[in-house]
Design a protein that fits this description.
mainly alpha, 5 helices, rod-shaped, Bestrophin homolog
């Protein structure tokens, strides 16, 4: 709904290996200059404000494009995955409540469910998958 059918055909007709988010910005700049020449924009200060807002919008679009374009290297995700799983394996061993060397009668195994460790595990693994 932001483009006319003719503008959409022109935008889709452009051949570029890159994202074309900048094309409507260039059209807006040309139309703002034409509006100033025709007197629809009162003075140069108003045109300057319009162009500054356009540049701010364009820079935010460019920043979003760069976040999508530059991916996190695979090695980092593998290292973080190994670190998370190693942390929780050591948590399962380290957070046991009974010392087997003490020889408690009738309490050879610790069968308690580590609820908070499981919640922590699900949180970290969920965060890792995101």
């Amino acid at each position: 709904g932001f483009l006319t059918p003719a503008e959409r055909r022109r935008l889709e007709g452009l051949r570029s290996p890159y994202n074309k988010f900048w094309v409507p910005c260039a059209w807006f700049g040309a139309l703002a200059g034409q509006a100033r020449r025709e007197g629809r924009v009162r003075d140069d200060c108003a045109l300057k404000l319009l162009m500054e807002e356009l540049n701010r919008f364009r820079s935010h679009c460019s920043l979003l494009f760069h976040y999508d374009w530059i991916s996190v290297p695979l090695v980092y995700t593998q290292v973080v995955t190994i670190a998370v799983y190693t942390f929780f394996v050591t948590c399962l061993i380290g957070r046991q409540f009974l010392d087997p060397a003490q020889g408690y009668a009738g309490h050879e195994l610790d069968l308690g469910v580590p609820v908070f460790t499981l919640l922590q595990f699900f949180f970290y693994v969920g965060w890792l998958k995101v």
